[in-house]
Write a structure and sequence with these properties.
Elements: H1 2-23, E1 28-34, E2 39-47, E3 52-62, E4 74-83, E5 86-95, E6 98-106, E7 116-120, E8 123-126, E9 132-136, E10 144-149, E11 154-156, H2 160-166, H3 169-174, H4 184-197
Parallel strand pairs: 3-9
Antiparallel strand pairs: 1-2, 2-3, 3-11, 4-5, 5-6, 6-7, 7-8, 9-10
Length: about 200
């Protein structure tokens, strides 16, 4: 149990920082991480070049508390292809035996939201109108998009998820930060992560 817990905590910390390391040398970047007892976040961002960032997409995948710790570890992959004004990308994340997939299609090589459509759970969502997608029931076998919305995309700092959630009591409530996990070390980590996003 100690080894498994360490692996889960390590995934949380590494995922939280590796996306930002990649972002510094690129126009855009995406990453994913556990952000609360019930939610895994995937996000995509752009560096605006003036010390601020722009959130292009935030997907919050919610299940029962601790769903991301069940099964055999965590993995992720991504690919991008295209040319001549047709670009495609796919991001896959696996937490235990649950796979989460996001596909993007754009006429822009850097997936500018004005020209990008994201496909999640067989639903096409234009990013010109939406930059946040809320999904519930991830571990129920019937994951459902319960809401899409657009929030102010500009943020300051290295963590777009914390910056955006901190401005929105609705998003913070969706995280179910009041839920508890049986392992005290894991619960301590969740309390810390939630504290960074509390409005």
């Amino acid at each position: 149990m100690q080894i498994r817990l360490f692996a889960v905590l390590n995934v949380i910390i590494v995922a939280a920082t590796s996306g930002f390391a990649r972002a510094q040398g690129q126009t855009s970047a995406g990453s994913n991480r556990v952000i609360s007892p019930a939610v895994v976040a995937y996000w995509q961002q752009h560096d605006t070049g003036d010390g601020t960032g722009r959130l292009d997409l935030l997907v919050l995948w919610r299940g029962t508390p601790g769903w991301f710790t069940r099964g055999n570890g965590t993995s992720g992959s991504g690919r991008t292809s295209g040319g001549f004004g047709q670009w495609h990308a796919a991001h896959a994340m696996t937490y235990g035996d649950i796979s989460l997939v996001i596909e993007l299609q754009s006429s822009s090589k850097d997936f500018d939201p004005a020209t990008t459509i994201v496909k999640i759970l067989d639903r096409d969502i234009p990013l010109r109108d939406t930059n946040v997608v809320l999904i519930d029931g991830v571990d129920s076998g019937k994951a459902t998009i319960i809401r899409t919305l657009r929030v102010e995309p500009q943020f300051v700092g290295s963590d777009p998820v914390a910056a955006v959630v901190k401005r929105s009591p609705e998003l913070f409530e969706f995280l179910q930060c009041g839920a508890t996990l049986p392992d005290p070390q894991m619960q301590s980590m969740m309390t810390f992560l939630c504290g960074q996003m509390r409005p």
